[in-house]
Specification:
The protein folds into two domains: 83 residues, Elongation Factor Tu (Ef-tu), domain 3, CATH 2.40.30.60; 64 residues, SH3 type barrels, CATH 2.30.30. Helices cover 5% and strands 42% of the residues. The protein is built from two helices and 13 strands; from the N terminus they run ββββββαβαββββββ. The strands form three sheets. A six-stranded mixed sheet has the order 11-10-9-8-13-12. It is elongated, with a radius of gyration of 18 Å. It starts with a strand and ends in a 7-residue tail after the last strand.
Length: 168
Amino acid sequence: MSEDKICVGALSGSYGVHGEVRLKSFCADPQAIADYGPLSSEDGKSQYVLTLTGSIPNGFTAEVEGIKTKEQADALKGIRLYAPRSVLPALPDDEYYHADLIGLTVLDTGGAVLGTVKFVQNHGAGDLLEVMRTGGGETVLVPFTMEVVPTVDLASGRVIIDPPEGLF
């Protein structure tokens, strides 16, 4: 995956019988996904021009240029949509694109290496850093809050955490 692209959404199957798709937006302003197009697949080989047509629980309905049938729309299920970083808004100092956090080294406040950020999850109650422990074992989910993660240093490729007692 190229570092100049950010995943902004995913197609989750057809909606109706006339080629509309279900669209899940990962944008802070969910409707903004339509402003970043055309969007591409992860490998960049396919381009998607979207027009939002409605809202549904957990997303939108949309038309994709060139898609006219339910079968064509169903074939797009699971495709993650990427936008060039250059068209996305600049972020304030305390906000980050999830893609920028993955792979960062995780240290505790004493400087001990705890692992690396494997993934950023959000199940509705806030972001969680999934940390792959140094030396292996099960991953640890760390709340991505200012209290637990006081420092994110993208330039140095690290985050410093103050984990709750017993988390590691």
